[in-house]
């Protein structure tokens, strides 16, 4: 796997700075080879191109870790059933991908690189197909919106309930959502903000600042009674029930969603682990929906909630960045750590945890608003 990973990364460098053109060529070749695939995709492909490349880069980065590689790709295969992807489509995608890579790498492309991508794609396709075949659940669930509440201009918290079949998931996971009444064939991932419940109600936190059409639709246009489509759950930012380590959760913006779900799950069985939750924002007005965490901390002495503001001199709580607050309260070496927020915030927090020598296997994270 080491040599394969090296070849994939070396060859990706040849085309990385032209990823938009690469994606355009890939789609053109794919639709020319099989025009029947075009109706499976949105009319506007800009967002889809970005998701394709994110998935491609993730696959390349995880190819050296067989366990993570397998789990991620099986989940991706289950998720792609919502696009009505059939087994025969994988050959078309592989042909188009290799053609695009050869075209944009030019004379620097070698037979060794070509074989590495063939082998990697064969492994990717096999795992995705296995994941799709092994899942007994439907490709997606129809879910009715029950409640919808706005926080300021750009954040909404809403709940929905899958119809007919329960949606099995673990606290900390995310799902893809489509709002077919408003935007057909446009999907985006959102973390579930509550632990599983008997009535199978799902809570979501969505922010539409600098976001795409779907987030804006979910914040501004969706109302109770609307039907959404919710795809199979994915993600590994979940609790290890056998761990006895204390827990650190760090969240910013709508990254609060999976952290809230994790805390709710812990309230059902935890008796011995201290749980510290840090929630960051620029100003106090950006700290939304903390009331439920405060209520939980009032009932469970092992839970502490620390809000942090980076640009609000009048705020009476902690000031500075989340990383600075973690330095003041740390060290966190013996904790299970969960980090959720923007790409920039997650990276800065991971640096702080690395400086404190927190083992990487004790850290789980999700990013919002970037690859």
Automatic annotation (TrEMBL):
Kindly give the InterPro entries that the UniProt entry links to this protein.
Cbr1-like_FAD-bd_dom, FAD-bd_FR_type, FNR_nucleotide-bd, Globin, Globin-like_sf, Globin/Proto, MRET, OxRdtase_FAD/NAD-bd
> What Pfam families is this protein classified in?
FAD_binding_6, Globin, NAD_binding_1
Which controlled-vocabulary keywords does the entry list? 2Fe-2S, Heme, Iron, Iron-sulfur, Metal-binding, NAD, NADP, Oxygen transport, Transport
The FAD-binding FR-type domain covers which part of the protein? 138-240
Q: Where does the chain cross the membrane?
A: none
On the tree of life, the source organism's domain of life is: Bacteria
* Domain named Globin: residues: 1-133
Catalysis performed (reactions): 2 nitric oxide + NADPH + 2 O2 = 2 nitrate + NADP(+) + H(+); 2 nitric oxide + NADH + 2 O2 = 2 nitrate + NAD(+) + H(+)
Q: Which cofactor does it need?
A: FAD; heme b
Might you give the EC number(s) for this enzyme? 1.14.12.17
CDD domains listed in its UniProt record: Mb-like_oxidoreductase, O2ase_reductase_like
The family database entries (PANTHER family) matched by this protein are listed as: NADH OXIDOREDUCTASE HCR, PROTEIN RFBI
Family, according to the entry, reads as follows: In the C-terminal section; belongs to the flavoprotein pyridine nucleotide cytochrome reductase family.
Q: What is this protein called?
A: nitric oxide dioxygenase
Q: Which organism is it from?
A: Plantactinospora siamensis
């Amino acid at each position: 796997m080491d040599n394969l990973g090296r070849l994939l990364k070396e060859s990706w460098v040849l085309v990385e700075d032209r990823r938009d053109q690469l994606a355009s060529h890939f789609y053109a070749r794919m639709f020319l080879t099989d025009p029947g695939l075009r109706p499976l995709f949105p009319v506007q492909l800009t967002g889809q191109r970005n998701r394709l490349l994110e998935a491609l880069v993730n696959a390349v980065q995880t190819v050296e870790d067989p366990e993570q590689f397998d789990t991620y790709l099986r989940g991706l295969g289950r998720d792609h059933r919502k696009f009505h992807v059939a087994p025969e489509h994988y050959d078309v995608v592989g042909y188009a991908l290799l053609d695009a890579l050869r075209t944009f790498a030019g004379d620097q492309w070698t037979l060794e690189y070509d074989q590495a991508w063939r082998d990697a794609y064969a492994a990717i396709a096999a795992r995705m197909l296995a994941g799709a075949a092994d899942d007994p659940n439907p490709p997606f669930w129809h879910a009715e919106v029950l409640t919808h509440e706005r926080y300021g201009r750009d954040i909404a918290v809403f709940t929905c309930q899958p119809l007919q079949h329960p949606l099995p998931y673990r606290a900390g996971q995310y799902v893809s959502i489509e709002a077919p009444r408003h935007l057909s064939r446009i999907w985006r991932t959102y973390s579930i903000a509550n632990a599983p419940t008997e009535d199978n109600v799902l809570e979501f936190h969505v922010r539409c600042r600098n976001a795409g059409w779907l987030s804006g639709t979910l914040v501004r246009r969706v109302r109770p009674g609307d039907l959404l489509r919710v795809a199979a759950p994915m993600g590994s930012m979940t609790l290890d029930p056998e761990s006895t380590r204390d827990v650190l959760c760090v969240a910013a913006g709508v990254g609060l969603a999976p952290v809230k779900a994790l805390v709710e799950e812990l309230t059902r069985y935890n008796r011995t682990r201290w749980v510290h939750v840090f929630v960051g924002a620029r100003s106090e007005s950006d700290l939304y929906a903390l009331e439920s965490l405060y209520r939980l901390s009032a009932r469970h002495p092992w839970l502490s909630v620390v809000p942090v503001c980076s640009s609000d001199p009048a705020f009476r709580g902690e000031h500075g960045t989340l990383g600075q607050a973690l330095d003041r309260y740390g060290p966190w070496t013996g904790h299970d750590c969960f980090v959720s927020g923007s790409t920039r915030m997650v990276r800065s927090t991971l640096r702080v945890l690395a400086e404190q020598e927190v083992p990487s296997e004790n850290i789980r994270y999700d990013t919002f608003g970037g690859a």
